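Our preliminary data section would be incomplete without showing what the modeling component actually yields. Below, a chain of 187 amino acids is followed by its predicted structure, encoded as tokens that our downstream tools consume directly.
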Amino acid sequence: MKDKTATQAYADELGVKYHHNAKDATIRKQISAHLEANPTRIDLPPGILQKHADYVPLTEAEYLEKYPKETSKRMECNRLIRCRIQNLNPAKKEWPGEIISVGSAKLGTWKKYVPFNDGEPYHLPKIIFDELKDKKCTVFHTEKDERGNNVRKGRLVNEFALEVLKPLTKEELSDLGRQQALQAGQQ
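Predicted structure:
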């Protein structure tokens, strides 16, 4: 059913008329006939599956020109931030790291393993950095109530302490590249 839905969306974008009960193959034949009758190149918005063999996708430069807003948002979300990450969640104090997944329908999904508590700087995409900055966890503590009884109460605290560091210079990047190449050769 998913293929038929995509084919119908493609036909709708092209302006091809089809019966609502038409099979996927029938709609594809109508699309092929339409494209043979109208040989101009057709650019569809991103996200719609292109099932026709004659479709020519946009080059990167054409995509940047046609969809500048979406591209600039994705580029901003993908910008790397150098930081140190410390886990403040007592329930996860033994964890060496965690897989963080962030995304939206328009921008896509980013997944990354984020190590914490090792003291080493790490580069994170901005969208994942922002998610870690906003994450909260509940920490319980004991208080005395008005009668003098011990009562456990929870409060929300930041789950991660993030220290933003200056980006690496070109010399530091080349040194890091050499170190990683040496390590890869030793393994």
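The chain has six helices and seven strands. The chain has two domains: 2-57, 71-168. Preliminary results of this kind motivate Aim 1 of the renewal.
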